[in-house]
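TASK: fixed-backbone design
INPUT:
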C-alpha cells in the first residue's frame, strides 16, 4: 500500500456499521463515517465511507476515505450510509446508501462506486443504480409512517446456480411492514427490483442485512431493536427472545422459502444503547468470520467464526486471535478472609485492560460464579460477568450494585457442571465465550459506575465453585480498531 495514502489513527472518529471483503491478498474494511460534522475530528471527512486494510484481519492500516459525500445537488451530497463491497473479476464494487440535503435525507437511494486498485473509487455514471419501486415498497416520504423512504444498506452476492447477482437491503413494504428487499442484476450495473426476500410482520425495520452462504445454504443476518417490534412481534416473542442485536433468516436458495424459525438473536442483549449492531461476515480462505460494531463503544468486536448446525448458526471463538496474544500470566484465586462476602478474590497482580481471562469452571455447589475485573484490591468495586446456574442466564453488572445486574438467557448451561470460560476485554468491548460459543457481547458503558483499578479475580455465591488453570493473556491488536 502507498504510504502516502495511510492516515494516523487520530485523524477522525468512525464507529458505525462495518462491512468487509477479501481480494485474495488483503482484507478490506469499509465503514460508515461520522454522521455529524460537529462530532467529526475532520469536518471534510464527515459522512464519508472510511477504509481500512489488513493482511491478517487483526492489525489494520487506515487509508484515505474510499468515498466522500457528493457535490451539492447530487443524490448523495448529505452523507453516505451503510452498504457492502464485492470484489469480482479484479474490480471492487462498492454499494452504499446516498441521501440528499435538499430532501433533508428523507429519500434513500442505493448508489455504486467502483475501483480497480481498491483505493481510488469512482462513482458509476448511472448511480443511483436502484431506487424504491412502489409496486412492492414504500416509495414516497408521504406514504411512509415516519416520513422516510427506507431503501438502504445494500449487500450483494453472486449465485452460481442461475448466474445472477442478488442484492438485499433494508426496506419497508407498500403496506408498511419491515422487510428485506431484493433486487437482481446480470452485470452489477443494471438492477431490477423484485418482491421482498422476506417480510417480517413482527417488526417495522430490518437494518444492515448481509448475505452468508455456508455449506450450500443461504443466510441473511440483520440488526433488530426491540423498539422496532410491532404489537404482533411483542405478543409472539417470549421475553428471553426480545433482545436488541443481530438476527438472521435462512433459505435453501435465493428464490426458495425463507424462514426465521430461530428467532433468538445470533448475538444480542436486553439493552438498546450497548447492543451488538450491524453484524457483517467475511468470507476468507473457505471459512466465514463475523464482526460487528458494539454500540456505546469506540471499538470493534473482533472476528468470530460462524458455525452452521443444520439451519442454525452459532458464533464461536476464533483461533486467529491467538496470533495477537502475548505470554499468558497465571491468576491465583484465594479464599477471601471476609466471611459472607460471597466471592473469592486474588489480586496481587495488576493487568492492562486488553486481554483474555480464561480457564475451566466447575459448578460445584455454587448457584452462580463468574469473573470480577477492573476491581479494587478488596473486590468490592468492579465489573463482573457470571453464570447463574439456577436460572440458566448470563449476568453482568457492577459488584457493588446488585440492583443494576443485567441478564440474558443462556439455556446451554442448564444441567451442565463444567465449562470452558473465556472473557475477552478489548478497550470498552466485553465478550464472554462459554465452551467456545459467544454468549455475551457488550461494552463497559453498559455497567457505569466506579471501575476501580485494573485487577482480575473470581467470584461465586450460594456455594463454592472450582476454577482451574486461570490465566490472563494480553492482547496486542491494531489501534485502528477504534474506528469501528
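OUTPUT:
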Amino acid at each position: 500500500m502507498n504510504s502516502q495514502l495511510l492516515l494516523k489513527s487520530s485523524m477522525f472518529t468512525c464507529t458505525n456499521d462495518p462491512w468487509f471483503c477479501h481480494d485474495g491478498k488483503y482484507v478490506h474494511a469499509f465503514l460508515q463515517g461520522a454522521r455529524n460534522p460537529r462530532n467529526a475530528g475532520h469536518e471534510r471527512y464527515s459522512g464519508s465511507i472510511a477504509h481500512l486494510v489488513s493482511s491478517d484481519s487483526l492489525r489494520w492500516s487506515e487509508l484515505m476515505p474510499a468515498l466522500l459525500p457528493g457535490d451539492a445537488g447530487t443524490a448523495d451530497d448529505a452523507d453516505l450510509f451503510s452498504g457492502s463491497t464485492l470484489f469480482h473479476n479484479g474490480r471492487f464494487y462498492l454499494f452504499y446508501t446516498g441521501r440528499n440535503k435538499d430532501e433533508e435525507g428523507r429519500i434513500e437511494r442505493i448508489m455504486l462506486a467502483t475501483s480497480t486498485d481498491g483505493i481510488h473509487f469512482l462513482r458509476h455514471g448511472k448511480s443511483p443504480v436502484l431506487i424504491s419501486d412502489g409496486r412492492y415498497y414504500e416509495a414516497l416520504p408521504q406514504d411512509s409512517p415516519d416520513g422516510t423512504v427506507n431503501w438502504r444498506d445494500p449487500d450483494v452476492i453472486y449465485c452460481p446456480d442461475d448466474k445472477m447477482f442478488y442484492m438485499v437491503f433494508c426496506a419497508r413494504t407498500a403496506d408498511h411492514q419491515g422487510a428485506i428487499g431484493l433486487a437482481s442484476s446480470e452485470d452489477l450495473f443494471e438492477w431490477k427490483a423484485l418482491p421482498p426476500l422476506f417480510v417480517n410482520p413482527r417488526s417495522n425495520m430490518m437494518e444492515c442485512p448481509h448475505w452468508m452462504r455456508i455449506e450450500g445454504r443461504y443466510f441473511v443476518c440483520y440488526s433488530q431493536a426491540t423498539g422496532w417490534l410491532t404489537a404482533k412481534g411483542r405478543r409472539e416473542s417470549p421475553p428471553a427472545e426480545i433482545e436488541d442485536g443481530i438476527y438472521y433468516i435462512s433459505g435453501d436458495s435465493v428464490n426458495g422459502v425463507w424462514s426465521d424459525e430461530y428467532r433468538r438473536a445470533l448475538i444480542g442483549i436486553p439493552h438498546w444503547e450497548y447492543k451488538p449492531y450491524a453484524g457483517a461476515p467475511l468470507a476468507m480462505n473457505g471459512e466465514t468470520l463475523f464482526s460487528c460494531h458494539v454500540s456505546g463503544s469506540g471499538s470493534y468486536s473482533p472476528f468470530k467464526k460462524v458455525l452452521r448446525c443444520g439451519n442454525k448458526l452459532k458464533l464461536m471463538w476464533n483461533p486467529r486471535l491467538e496470533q495477537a496474544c502475548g505470554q499468558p500470566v497465571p491468576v491465583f484465586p484465594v479464599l477471601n478472609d471476609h466471611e459472607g462476602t460471597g466471592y473469592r478474590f486474588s489480586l496481587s497482580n495488576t493487568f492492562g485492560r486488553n486481554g483474555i481471562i480464561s480457564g475451566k469452571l466447575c459448578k460445584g455447589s455454587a448457584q452462580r460464579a463468574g469473573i470480577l475485573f477492573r476491581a479494587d484490591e478488596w473486590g468490592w468495586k468492579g465489573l463482573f460477568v457470571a453464570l447463574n446456574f439456577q436460572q440458566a442466564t448470563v449476568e453482568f453488572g457492577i459488584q457493588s450494585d446488585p440492583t443494576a445486574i443485567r441478564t440474558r438467557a443462556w439455556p446451554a448451561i442448564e444441567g451442565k457442571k463444567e465449562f470452558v470460560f473465556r472473557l475477552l476485554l478489548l478497550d470498552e468491548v466485553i465478550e464472554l465465550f462459554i465452551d467456545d460459543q459467544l454468549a455475551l457481547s457488550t461494552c463497559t458503558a453498559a455497567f457505569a459506575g466506579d471501575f476501580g483499578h485494573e485487577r482480575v479475580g473470581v467470584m461465586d455465591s450460594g456455594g463454592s465453585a472450582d476454577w482451574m488453570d486461570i490465566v490472563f493473556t494480553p492482547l496486542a491488536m491494531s489501534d485502528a480498531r477504534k474506528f469501528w
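COMMENT: Residues 1-14, 35-42 have pLDDT under 50 and may be disordered.
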